[in-house]
Write a structure and sequence with these properties.
Blueprint: E1 5-7, H1 11-17, E2 33-35, E3 46-52, E4 55-63, E5 65-66, E6 78-79, E7 81-82, H2 88-94, E8 100-105, E9 107-111, E10 123-128, E11 134-143, E12 146-154, E13 168-169, E14 171-172, H3 177-182, H4 185-188, E15 200-202
Length: 203
């Protein structure tokens, strides 16, 4: 599953891409760079877009939804990728439009199945050729430490499958952003499908 992605765009570019209206508070941490699941060794936060009434806002959240009540130490298990869409663990978020979010991305990575000549599995990066910034379909919920998010995965397309045959993130088309953030689950469930492979590149 995807456990590392990048957001190298500037805050103004992200805001313009996702229809976030000015003025907004300037975040000095942009560009974010590589994003890993939030944990004891990786105290990073991801940027997500949530719908707030008729407006969208950019918010920092932990990447990884705890499966148990957090303590002062990190919870034992956090789920970062949402694959079993029928699971009761995710249903309350999936069926509540206000718990849907957009996860802005400039590229994401997967390790190859087989190690290279150096004995290490090579890391491959994927991007969308015509879209410098795109979005995963995300969901979020409040926790005792703050808000946390994960993003949906689906069957891999022909570009991702040779590297990672189990799954790929659900990448939304630009025209589906509003639907994902506002419509009931039964009207957007079909968006959880592989992104067209001809629109992607791997390096």
């Amino acid at each position: 599953m995807c456990s590392r992605y990048r957001l190298t765009a500037k805050q103004a570019e992200v805001a313009a891409t996702f229809g976030i209206r000015a003025p907004y508070e300037v975040d000095e941490t942009f560009p974010v760079g590589d994003i890993f699941p939030t944990g004891k060794k990786t105290p990073f936060y991801g940027a997500v877009i949530v719908q707030d009434g008729g407006d969208r806002r950019l918010e920092r959240m932990e990447w990884g939804v705890p499966t148990q009540v957090p303590s002062k130490r990190d919870p034992a298990v956090k789920l970062t990728n949402v694959r079993n869409l029928s699971s009761s663990f995710w249903r309350s978020m999936l069926t509540t439009p206000t718990r849907c979010c957009l996860v802005p991305v400039t590229s994401f990575s997967e390790y190859a199945l087989a190690p290279g000549e150096d004995g290490k599995k090579p890391l491959h990066w994927f991007d969308v050729l015509s879209r410098p910034v795109f979005a995963f379909a995300g969901i979020w919920r409040p926790t005792e430490r703050g808000n946390a998010y994960g993003f949906l995965t689906t069957e891999p397309n022909a570009v991702v499958a040779p590297i990672h045959p189990k799954a790929m993130p659900v990448i939304l088309h630009d025209e589906d952003y509003e639907r994902w953030l506002t419509l009931p689950w039964d009207e957007v469930a079909n968006l959880a499908s592989p992104y067209p492979s001809q629109l992607m590149a791997v390096y």
